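Re: the 140-residue chain
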Amino acid sequence: FGSKSGALVQFLMGTGASAIVEAGKEASPEELQEYFQLLSEDSRKKLADGVAALEAIRAKPQIPPAVKKKLEEAFKEIDANKSGFIEFEEMKTVLEKLGVDLPEDKMLKVFKAADTNKDEKLSLEEYEALVLRAKKKEEE
């Protein structure tokens, strides 16, 4: 791997960073920019998308296991038709049973805001995010 492209391949395979650290030096911003420029446009986009995905994962709040288990149990209870999703009518029924005094149009607005992929149903992840947002607002 004597060439710059060989160093880039080694770096992208994960060994380049450790080799730089082991050698007692860090890559300068200029060196990293030089490596980045050697990539094809498609590879640069994939790398940027990967970095964005990692940042999103890091930003996502981690749910303690005991809380996650309770959310999963509640999700299964709300999912009356056992589809693996919560439809609006299922959410509405539960909120009404709990005595939540909210007009249907407001319930629908909350549901649609929680339905981040716009498939008109809530996945477990969307439900967890909805509950965590509501809990956070309650604590404020």
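The two ends are 55 Å apart (CA to CA).
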